[in-house]
Amino acid sequence: MNIPSKHVEDLVEHFASLPGIGRKTALRLVLNLLKRKEEEIESFSKSLGGIKTKICSCKKCGNLSDAEVCSICAQHSRNHKLICVVEDIRDIMAIENTQQYFGVYHVLGGVISPIEGIGPNDLNIIPLLERVNAGEAEEVILALNATMEGDTTNFYLYRKLIDSNITITTLSRGVSVGTELHYTDELTLGRSIVNRTLFDMAPVKR
Amino acid sequence: MNIPSKHVEDLVEHFASLPGIGRKTALRLVLNLLKRKEEEIESFSKSLGGIKTKICSCKKCGNLSDAEVCSICAQHSRNHKLICVVEDIRDIMAIENTQQYFGVYHVLGGVISPIEGIGPNDLNIIPLLERVNAGEAEEVILALNATMEGDTTNFYLYRKLIDSNITITTLSRGVSVGTELHYTDELTLGRSIVNRTLFDMAPVKR
User: Fold this and answer.
1) How far apart are CA A141 and CA B206, in angstroms?
2) A65 and which of A5, A70, B43, B191 could share a cystine (Cβ 3.0–4.6 Å)?
3) Mean pLDDT, to the nearest integer, of A60-88?
């Protein structure tokens, strides 16, 4: 595919470097942008150019933030003794959306993955241990993805935290809400029977 | 979905305004960009900011171009008496990829679509008629998409060009190469029988 303009080619390459965007999609995006007004493009370009300087990560939890401390860590009404460890900020947003959690977070920035060459030292683990050792936490919730890498990281963190005299919990595993049982995989279904809970008419408080 | 940073939110909105990109995908792209080096972001941002000033359309055919006349119109070896009318530059790239066409192009910039409020005056039609009336063309190939809007535009152009004593052709319709006959829709299969061609062992010259 030969693009007749070097500048368009350049921009297509930039868009195509993003995850999930191929050259054809990138070209479609660029052609769409070419039809926009100049102000709009300028605002997009400025917004993009500023991300490295304007956006910082919260010095407490590692969440994205415009200030030194993120809006969650700055809320006094939250339980700062309860720390939920997540992989990235999308997990924070997902948990916040449930409106069921009122503690604070700690963003690891990834999970241990030997295949991708990510070890414990590449993650935001030491600041977590410092928070715990400083007596900041009473309970740490390990809320990493239910994948092999997530489980490995959960286990690593558990080993690091076990001596520090705090409660260590993890997300419950079980059948998803709205799922038909016969479509649930046997591992999940097995766990949900072993870890059955007392029947409760209103398990989710709104 | 509440994004904890206003700047990230802004950039997500910009990405989500692109076709086929929703807010979740946009956030994934922005998080990916946040991990890049500053130089890379700056180059992306500059490339984006420059598209309105650096990229122009060829004054002859409307193709994207870095100069006044595009690389295709500037080639003397091409047959400038043969004009292929296409909807947008992606069609030029598709036809160029076949390596079967050696004429020049004319980009309409869209097709007539009453539903989207696009009439003949919104398209690059008058410059085409001027090129034809100036005696530039011997043959015009109407190569618009095989959709209702494309056919309508083909018909409109045909009516406008019919008096100008040039050959007006269109792309042949028929069974795609590599298709199984029983999967071909009846309209296409019907046309391919009516418009059958003499058997030729090498219909595509390479």
Assistant:
1) 65
2) A70
3) 90
d(CA A156, CA A123): 12
pLDDT in tens, A120-149: 999 999 999 999 999 888 999 999 888 889
Q: Please give the residue of chain B at the shortest CA–CA distance from A109.
A: B35
Mean pLDDT of chain B: 88
Contact at 8 Å (CB) between B195 and B175? Answer: no
pLDDT digits (tens, 9 = 90+) for B84-107: 999 988 899 889 888 889 999 999
For residue B72, list chain A residues with Cβ-Cβ distance below 8 A. 4
Which CATH code of 1.10.8.420, 1.10.3470.10, 1.10.443.10, 3.40.50.300 fits the domain covering A6-54?
1.10.8.420
Assign domain B56-171 to its CATH architecture. 3-Layer(aba) Sandwich (3.40)
Confidence of residue A186 (pLDDT cuts 50, 70, 90): confident
Tell me whether residues A7 and B45 touch, CB distance under 8 A: no
Which residues in B lie closer than 8 A to residue A89 (C-beta atoms)? 4, 31
pLDDT value for A126: 92
- Residue where the block lists tokens 């649930």: A184
Q: What is the DSSP string of B132-194?
A: HHTT--SEEEE---SSHHHHHHHHHHHHHHGGG--EEEE----PPTT--GGGS-HHHHHHHHH
Domain with CATH 3.40.1360.10 in chain B: 56-171
How far is the alpha carbon of A182 from chain B, nearest alpha carbon, in Å? 30
A63/B1 touch (CB, cutoff 8 Å), yes or no: no
Flag whether residue B54 sits within 8 Å of chain A, measured between CB atoms. yes
- What's the pLDDT band for A64 if we cut at 50, 70, 90? confident
- Which residues numbered 68-87 in B keep a CB inside 8 Å of some CB on A? 70-72
- Per the structure block, which two tokens stand in for A74? 């700055």
Among B residues 169-198, those touching chain A with beta carbons less than 8 Å apart: none
Would you say A126 and A156 are in contact if contact means Cβ atoms under 8 Å apart?
no
